[in-house]
UniProtKB/TrEMBL annotation:
Belongs to the peptidase M20A family. CDD domains: M20_ACY1L2-like. This is Peptidase M20 domain-containing protein 2. NCBIfam families: amidohydrolases. InterPro entries: Amidohydrolase, Bact_exopeptidase_dim_dom, Peptidase_M20, Peptidase_M20/M20A_hydrolases, Peptidase_M20_dimer, Xaa-Arg_dipeptidase. Transmembrane segments: none annotated. One of its GO terms (cellular component) is cytoplasm. It comes from Nocardiopsis aegyptia. Pfam families: M20_dimer (PF07687), Peptidase_M20 (PF01546). The keyword Hydrolase applies. The lineage of its organism: Bacteria, Bacillati, Actinomycetota, Actinomycetes, Streptosporangiales. One of its GO terms (biological process) is folic acid catabolic process. Residues 169-260 form the Peptidase M20 dimerisation domain. Keywords: Hydrolase. The keyword Hydrolase applies.
């Protein structure tokens, strides 16, 4: 679709529209790969603002690409809009979407002066699905000169230092049997999980510093008097880098193999996505962001233990290996309430959230403007 001539709204009108967009996303959470309404609302917002919009970008039904300008230099503002199963927008992706879209709209009047093409890329499935990695493989992002997004957290933490992470689906298949009358006929898939978790617990003593292993069992059986024939779970393995992740991931898998061996069950250990990478920060862009953030009245002096949301894994890490990028965390002032808690979802709308949208969009736009000046 072709962009029509557009007169920018006032800053106040702009912010009202961004808040409305963010609150709409928040009220209608959609999980990974299912963000159909979110993608449509994102496309509508950007089309209203004079961008040329492509939906179903690169064949991904819930990906969006919007652009303005025809400059030789390209800046990309990255939108996320997937929610967490059962928790809604407890990671604040509704705010990410509003900040990135808002920054792109705010920068639009300077596109010609800066010789820019301004891109907004709506990306599905950050929460475990690796949407950006799939899009990167399909050719997205690589023509950008800079990729920018900001992520809400309890406090400001400008430098992203995420773990590399592998996401796996685990399934044990045994044989059901009556637990009292014919227990010897069963092959207990529940016990396979117990053995695996004991092995993981013992492994923790030998885990290198800066690693994490955690997960949940999603299917545990059907009745107390029936030996479970099938159990399932989701497991994450994290390390400082992809290189560090590989040997740790192998050992984690061996713990699940031990559960299968001990119980004579079959193991299906399947990646849910490609591994997420560590992050490579563009130092110049981060310095510009931090300087403008301080001038805007934001602070980076929260205790270190409050800033650890910057360790959260992100598939933008994979993009950062190919394109200069930053991924600062912008605070809602909510600590000890933090991401992936129901209480955090609640603070992702309201007065603090509105300020984050205004500040985040302003800072991303100012960072891009100075970077390309």
């Amino acid at each position: 679709m072709t962009a029509e001539p557009f007169a920018p709204p006032s800053a106040a009108e702009h912010l009202v529209r961004l808040i409305e967009y963010s609150e709409t996303l928040h009220a209608h959470p959609e999980t990974a790969w299912q963000e159909h309404r979110a993608a449509r609302w994102t496309a509508d917002l950007l089309a209203e603002s004079g961008f040329a919009v492509t939906t179903g970008y690169l064949g991904f039904p819930t990906a969006v690409h919007a652009s303005y300008g025809s400059g030789s230099r390209r800046v990309g503002f990255i939108v996320e809009y997937d929610a967490l199963p059962g928790l809604g927008h407890a990671c604040g992706h509704n705010l990410i979407a509003a900040m990135s879209a808002g920054a792109a709209i705010a920068l639009r009047p300077w596109a010609r002066e800066l010789d820019l093409r301004i891109d907004v890329i709506g990306t599905p499935a950050e929460e475990g699905g690796g949407g950006k990695i799939e899009m990167l493989d399909a050719g997205a992002f690589t023509d950008l000169d800079l990729a920018l997004m900001a992520h809400p957290g309890p406090v400001d933490a400008p430098r992203a230092e995420p773990y590399a992470v592998a996401h796996d689906h685990v399934r044990f298949v045994g044989r059901s049997a009556h637990a009292a009358a014919y227990p010897h006929e069963g092959r207990n898939a529940g016990d396979a999980f117990v053995v695996a978790q004991v092995a993981l617990g013992l492994l923790r003593q030998q885990l290198p510093p800066g690693t994490r292993v955690h997960g949940i069992q999603t299917v545990g059986g059907e009745a107390p008097n029936a030996i479970p024939g099938v159990t399932e779970g989701r497991w994450y393995t994290r390390a400082e880098t992809l290189a560090d992740l590989e040997p740790l991931h192998r050992r984690v898998r061996q713990c699940f193999e031990a559960g299968a061996l001990a119980t004579d069950t079959a193991l299906d250990f399947t990646p849910e996505s490609q591994p997420y990478s560590e992050f490579r920060t563009d130092e110049r862009a981060l310095e510009i962001y931090m300087r403008h953030a301080l001038a805007l009245g934001r602070s980076f002096d929260a205790p270190v233990e409050h800033q650890t949301m910057n360790r959260a894994s992100t598939d933008l890490g994979n993009v950062s290996q190919h394109v200069p990028a930053i991924h600062p965390y912008i605070g809602l002032g909510s600590f000890p309430v933090s991401n992936h808690q129901p209480e955090f979802a609640a603070v992702c709308v309201g007065e603090a959230a509105d300020r984050v949208i205004a500040d985040g969009a302003t800072l991303l736009a100012r960072t891009a403007h100075e970077y390309f000046s």
